From TrEMBL, chain A:
The gene is cheW. This is Chemotaxis protein CheW. InterPro entries: CheW, CheW-like_dom_sf, CheW-lke_dom. One of its GO terms (biological process) is chemotaxis. Residues 20-160 form the CheW-like domain. GO terms for cellular component: cytosol.
TrEMBL record, chain B:
The modification Phosphohistidine is found at H44. It comes from Methylobacterium hispanicum. Residues 133-145 have a biased composition (Pro residues). Residues 792-909 form the Response regulatory domain. Residues 1-100 form the HPt domain. Its EC number is 2.7.13.3. It is an enzyme of class 2 (transferase). One of its GO terms (molecular function) is phosphorelay sensor kinase activity. It catalyses: ATP + protein L-histidine = ADP + protein N-phospho-L-histidine. GO terms for biological process: chemotaxis. This is Chemotaxis protein CheA.
């Protein structure tokens, strides 16, 4: 088996070990993405989003999820995908990092898949650089490909931007 | 016993801290009996408790120290050496306490060295004074608590108490009750002690004897006085220790309660006739009171964090051989205990730094004509929802040259970058890890650890640290800590589509404005202002601050929230004001913390998340845009130059053009901003034109993707040169910013000069030279001077930006332009093949300046030496003019003054052409 191209890919490594993993599948446009289930805290319909003026483009706004303030991030914009033609309500995946709650806004949420190493592939090298950095691997499914996303990678943006104005 | 021991440990370490501070004060003010009594009493307490708990080492040490202090009380002169000795003893006590805390028993070891020294010190003066009846020196070594009751110290305590607690009768029965009995009584009181003691020196000083006031009472309760048993003390302050986690939890619960109450109130607001209005009102009051109470438990005066500093400074003063005075202002400023804990160590570190690096040696100070005694000033105060702490010294200031050098050595920045940086930016290098310019590493500081940690610590609580340094005058560090984790009253307002919360502390009043009413917004060159009680108040619209479009009508009506931050007053125009609400400030997401306009966010009663506007952030923006926006165009040029000289800032007009991208152009090049009716655009020969001020003005799009609108209004940026004007079509005019211009990415496109980060946004700087010929084919060819012989001009400027900006202007004026980025290159060109007719040079350049270049030109051989030279300068002072005259520089022109430059060139042309003829 090929070595995973992305070395920080803990999930990919686990997959290599032969353990099956569970992924929550989400859709953006036609593409299906997988998020490690242990990172997903919530699935909810984002309502009442307060936009944040001057915020980085990835950030849709802030919303109240059961008394917590959640930063909503648009997966579409995060991945640099074109704007959707129809703006549906969408769904959001609740993620946590360093004590903060984020909501990853997607077009739709699919089922939970249990996948083994047999269908796992490294990230194709011809992918867009942005995607390469955020993907941990690809699973070959029937008639579809599932791109596994690196949750920490998704949430690590804006830090470098925060510097100049803070100083 | 375990609990008792723990109590003892906390209590004793607090006492010792207080003694530390008090001793330093006492040393400076040896005649102040109140301080001495205070110290004496605290040490005595420790001694007594140790005896009870069976801690012989501590007891013996404390006893020896107490004895020496007893001598002071009896009139022995206080010397620096004796205070140092007592301080050393206190340190030893602390060390033993620390071990005790870990091991649960006293560590083995001997303190004979210290005890002996203490005894010698006290014995030395005994005969001289001999007032104290039982001179105790011979028996300090007796450790076991058995002999306690007989100890002379006991007697002197009673004397002491009789002396300073004369008033409350029941207490001073001099009964030699065994100390043990008193211990349980003093247990519940420990917190009162440090608080009272910390505040008491001031508060209690005037009223030691006659007073049954709480302060002495607290002191009383706290001393192991035998009589403290029976609850007889009237004003005794009862305190208990509570685990911080408990308080934190309580705080969280109260926050939730406040939110729930708000939700209920919101519901009640909608249902008019509800019968639960009254109980709800009651609930609301109770909640408010509860909240206030819980908040109070978390607040502590910042003086608690400063307690150790007098001692630190005293020791440093001795160690470094400098005279240092520590001034502390605003010690009563209260702040959240959590915040207090975090800043405690950074503050100590910074004070050390100031003492070691900041202040010069006494000799150097005297040589510089300063007072021999250096001052470190600590000040704390509330300001617009934040707490500001300043640490200032009157020392030599930061050695910016050394920092620049070091920054380059360490590869933090290139030489060129460092040269371009402002002093304030350079000073910030000291926050880099491992950065130290200290020539020598002292035990105090200079190891290059610290300031980065200080910065990190402060930033973790959302604070900001800033440096202001003046050579020879001193350095001031300003720390601003926002009040996060707190509940604040806020005004809920609407601006555009969204609601925002404005903290009420910053709000002075609300003014309704309406064009039809008496209060209306007026404009000075587009900048909105409001007449408020015979004063002009600058106005900002919240929507425009937030980068949203605001129509003219919107900026006429609404409410002005009059706010004050520091000494700056301004009005924030909002569309609607709803009500005030107690909000729980939730910190901003880490992804959004860089937005200085927001202090945090909160959840309102109706469940919506709203952003909390930070009045400080707004104030900063107001002063910036006020400077840029309200000044007439000519003055603006000066403004820019002034900024150029000091901070090297450029005022730029930011607009949106093409796919929402931000673009900018130097404001000095812009003639006017217009919003035209889109139907006025006419098309002639496939090119868009408008009738503008009686002439036809061609329009050019700022980006190919921009569609000229067919309805509504169209934003234009008008550039003009002489009689010609061109309208640059943009999507939206966003802002005017004044910032240092760092072109980061050189563009490959001819319509862009490059990209820069402005206000945290990547922004393209457009190249006007690209657009001018699009409007007039002949603009670049200089049709107005058809007779002119092509003359070649050498343009010398270190900034690529200015070279790029001036080149098209000069070309348009009919010159062949050769650009050089420095004096060396310029000399090479001059001595080369190409014939140069005139030199235009920037006078302020890094390395060899423009003056050096001109001097070199004048010193060169025949054809070159006589060349006419025009100097470009950001700041034209008398000295510059004088120097320029000596070097026969034909003219001095301000850097942004294009027409001035052209005029100067024309002037040169006339005589030189005549000569040629």
């Amino acid at each position: 088996m090929m070595k995973p191209a992305n070395s920080n890919a803990a999930a990919a490594a686990a997959a290599k070990d032969g353990a099956t993993q569970e992924f929550v599948t989400v859709f953006v446009g036609e593409t299906m993405f997988g998020l490690a289930i242990n990172r997903v805290h919530d699935v909810f319909i984002p309502t009442g989003i307060t936009p944040v003026p001057l915020a980085p483009p990835e950030i849709v706004g802030l919303l109240n999820l059961r008394g917590r303030v959640v930063t909503a991030i648009c997966l579409r914009r995060r991945l640099g995908m074109p704007r959707a033609e129809t703006q549906g309500a969408g769904m959001a995946i609740g993620l946590e990092q360093a004590g903060e709650t984020f909501g990853l806004v997607v077009d739709g949420v699919g089922e939970v898949l249990k996948l083994g190493p047999d269908t796992h592939e490294a990230v194709p090298i011809n992918l867009d650089a942005r995607w390469r950095n955020l993907a941990l691997g690809v699973h070959r499914l029937d008639g579809k490909l599932l791109v596994i996303l690196d949750v920490d990678g998704l949430l690590s943006f804006g830090a470098e931007r925060a510097e100049p104005t803070a100083a | 016993m375990d609990d008792l021991l723990r109590e003892f440990l906390t209590e004793s370490s607090e006492h010792l801290d207080t003694v530390d501070t008090e001793l330093v004060r006492f040393e400076q003010d040896p005649n102040n009996e109140t301080i001495l009594r205070n110290i004496f009493r605290l040490v005595h307490t420790i001694k007594g408790t140790c005896g009870f708990l069976g801690l012989p080492r501590l007891e013996a040490l404390a006893h020896a120290a107490e004895t020496l202090m007893g001598r002071f009380r009896d009139g022995m002169p206080v010397s620096g050496a004796s205070v140092t000795l007592i301080l050393a003893t206190l340190d030893r006590l602390k060390a033993i306490l620390a071990d005790l805390e870990i091991a649960g028993t006293e560590p083995a070891g001997s303190d004979d060295d210290l005890i002996e020294a203490l005894d010698r010190m006290s014995a030395g003066e005994v005969p001289a004074v001999a007032v104290a009846a039982p001179p105790p020196p011979p028996e300090p070594v007796l450790p076991p608590p058995v002999e306690r009751e007989l100890k002379p110290g006991e007697v002197s305590l009673d004397e002491l108490e009789a002396a300073f607690l004369a008033a409350p009768g029941p207490d001073d029965e001099p009964a030699p009750l065994p100390a043990p009995a008193s211990i349980p009584a003093s247990m519940p009181a420990p917190v009162a002690a440090p608080v009272a003691a910390a505040l008491a020196p001031v508060a209690a000083t005037p009223a030691p004897a006659p007073a049954p006031v709480p302060a002495p009472a607290a002191q009383k309760a706290e001393a192991p006085a035998p009589a403290a048993e029976g609850g007889e003390v009237p004003g005794k302050v009862q305190t208990i220790r509570v685990n911080v986690d408990t308080l934190e939890h309580l705080m969280t619960m109260v926050s939730e309660l406040v939110l729930t109450r708000n939700q209920l109130l919101e519901i009640a607001r909608r249902h008019e006739d509800s019968s639960y209005k009254v109980p709800l009102q009651r609930l609301s009051h109770v909640t408010a009171e509860l909240q206030e109470g819980v908040m109070k438990t978390r607040m502590q005066p910042i003086g608690n964090a400063w307690q150790k500093l007098p001692r630190v400074v005293r020791d440093l003063s001795a160690e470094l051989g400098k005279q240092i005075e520590l001034v502390m202002l605003g010690a009563e400023t209260e702040l959240d205990r959590q915040v207090l804990d975090v800043i405690k160590d950074p503050l100590t570190h910074m004070v050390r730094n100031s003492a070691d690096h900041g202040l010069e040696s006494t000799a150097a100070r005297v040589a510089a004509g300063k007072p021999a005694r250096g001052t470190i000033r600590l000040a704390a105060y509330h300001e617009g929802g934040t707490i500001t702490i300043e640490i200032a010294d009157d020392g030599k200031g930061l050695d910016l040259a050394a920092i620049r050098r070091k920054a380059v050595e360490r590869g933090l920045a290139s030489q060129a970058d460092v040269e371009k940086m402002t002093d304030a930016q350079v000073a910030k290098f000291i926050f880099h890890a491992g950065f130290s310019t200290a020539a020598a590493v002292t035990s105090v500081s200079g190891r290059g650890v610290g300031m980065d940690v200080v910065k990190t610590n402060i930033e973790t609580i959302g604070g900001v640290i800033d440096i202001n340094t003046q050579a020879g005058r001193g350095t001031t560090f300003t720390i601003k800590i926002p009040l996060t984790l707190a509940i604040v009253a806020a005004l809920i307002v609407r601006a555009g589509e969204s609601r925002f919360a404005v903290p009420q502390v910053a709000v002075l009043e609300l003014v309704r404005v309406d064009p039809a009413a008496a209060q209306k917004i007026e404009r000075i060159n587009g900048a909105p202002v409001l007449r408020l009680r015979e004063r002009l108040l600058p106005i900002v619209t919240l929507t425009s601050l937030l980068g949203q479009e605001a129509t003219e009508a919107e900026t006429q009506t609404g409410f002005v929230v009059v706010a004050q931050v520091g000494r700056q007053r301004f009005g924030i125009l909002v569309d609607e004001v709803f009500h005030t609400e107690e909000i729980v400030v939730k910190p901003m997401s880490s992804k959004l913390r860089h937005l200085s306009l927001f202090a945090g966010n909160t959840i309102l009663g109706d469940g919506a998340v709203v952003l909390i506007v930070d009045p400080n952030g707004v104030a900063r923006q107001v002063s910036q845009s006020a400077q840029a926006g309200s000044i007439p165009a000519e003055m603006e040029a000066e403004e820019v130059e002034a900024g150029e000289a000091g901070e090297a800032k450029t005022t730029l007009l930011v607009f949106k053009g093409g796919n929402g991208a931000f673009k900018a152009v130097p404001l000095s090049l812009v003639t006017r901003l217009e919003e035209i009716d889109a139907t006025k655009v006419e098309w002639l020969g496939g090119r868009p034109l408008i009738q503008y001020r009686g002439r036809l003005m061609p329009l050019v799009v700022a980006d190919e993707t921009i569609q000229i609108r067919t309805e509504g209004t169209q934003a234009l940026v008008v550039f003009s040169d002489g009689e010609r004007a061109m309208g640059l079509v943009v999507d939206q005019i966003v802002d005017i910013v004044e910032e240092r211009l760092d072109i980061e990415i050189a563009a490959e496109r001819s319509d862009l000069i490059g990209s820069a980060v402005l206000r945290g946004r990547a922004t393209d700087i457009i190249n006007i030279a690209h657009f001018l010929p699009l409007a007039y084919d002949d603009w670049a060819r200089g049709p107005r001077r058809p007779t002119k012989v092509a003359r070649t001009l050498l343009l010398v400027d270190d900034s690529a930006f200015f070279r790029d900006m001036l080149t098209p202007v000069l070309k348009a004026a009919g010159y062949g332009v050769i650009a050089a980025e420095g004096a060396e290159r310029a000399m090479a060109i001059l001595s080369g093949e190409t014939r140069i007719d005139v030199v235009v040079t920037d006078l302020e350049m890094p390395g060899r300046s423009g003056f050096d270049l001109v001097a070199a030109i004048r010193a060169a051989g025949h054809p070159i030496a006589g060349l006419p030279v025009i100097g470009l300068s950001a700041a034209v002072g008398a000295e510059t003019v004088d120097r320029a005259r000596r070097l026969a520089i034909s003219d001095l022109v301000a850097k942004f003054d294009r027409s001035g430059l052209i005029a100067a060139l024309t002037e040169i042309d006339a005589p030189s052409l005549a000569e040629a003829a």
